[in-house]
């Protein structure tokens, strides 16, 4: 019998301030923010993952569990530095699929 | 569609940075901003904000040491600023501020020293509910605290919010940003209330409905002819 997977939510993010960061550094900052705020149990519930990140435009996509989108937004809001330089992560859009997230971003 | 308002942007002191912050606020989706400053926002700045689609309001933060200072300061600033916030550093001030109808926002900053923090206790919350004072949660309190300190700040805020909710005190969420890097989008500020056990709709109200109501109420009070809530003098009638 097919089992429906847990819902996911995709958040479009944009980075502000600080030096140029690599995808790995942004990903690490993301995990650290969730871990600091909610602990390892939180990481397992939120299942945060940086799907893509463009170092030039400083925009990316984060995936998380749909039922924990607010927690994910809170963790992103509390990021104040990435690899020792001041930075801010702002969510510019949210959607249930990457496709609709991109089409929303394109229409803006 | 919600109209998001941030009632606490601190004046960075540099007009260029402030303009940058107004532009960013507009991009982030805010429709209203209150700049906390010692002097009311000049008309030129309000006009500049309007270009970005921002309704600018002026806010003053009072830090009285005792109730006498609070009363004097309120007499001095109430008619000049649209928003009056009081930093409650001791219990006497917090009680007096909660009782006073001229106070719009009660804010309880986290203490850096080892002293015990004054918070919104049930008695204070009851007084604040009667005088329609709002309780402020500022994102900057969390951003400025270190990892260990953040847990303590969250515990204190949770306790205050629990008291506020029980007594029906409106809860307001603000950024408290003094630089563009500390500014966040409205839903991010609202999501902080999730950490404080507020339901989602109340969290969103804290950055939209509650601040809009405070602003509208105070602007009505500052209009000429205002006598008391619901009563205004109408001139030119036969």
**Would you give the CATH topology of chain A?**
Alpha-Beta Plaits
* Helical proportion of chain A, percent range: 25-40%
Percent range for helical residues of chain B? Answer: 40-55%
Which segments of chain B are poorly predicted (pLDDT under 50) over 5 or more consecutive residues? none
Instruction: List the helices and strands of chain B in order.
Output: EHEHEHEHEHEHHEHHHEE
Q: Describe the largest sheet of chain B.
A: 7 strands, parallel
Strand-pairing-aware structural class of chain A: alpha+beta
CATH class of chain A: Alpha Beta
Instruction: Give me the side-by-side strand order of the main sheet of chain B.
Output: 1-2-3-4-5-6-7
Largest sheet of chain A: 4 strands, antiparallel
Number of domains of chain A: 1
Uncertain segments of chain A of ≥5 residues (pLDDT<50)?
Answer: none
CATH topology-level name of chain B = TIM Barrel
Shape of chain B: globular
The number of helical elements of chain B comes to 10
> How many domain units of chain B?
1
**Oligomeric state, counting identical vs distinct chains:** heterodimer
Give a brief outline of the structure.
The complex is a heterodimer of chains A (108) and B (238). Chain A is of the alpha+beta class and 108 residues long. Chain A has helices at 23-46, 69-77, 98-107; strands spanning 8-16, 49-54, 59-65, 81-82, 85-86, 88-95.
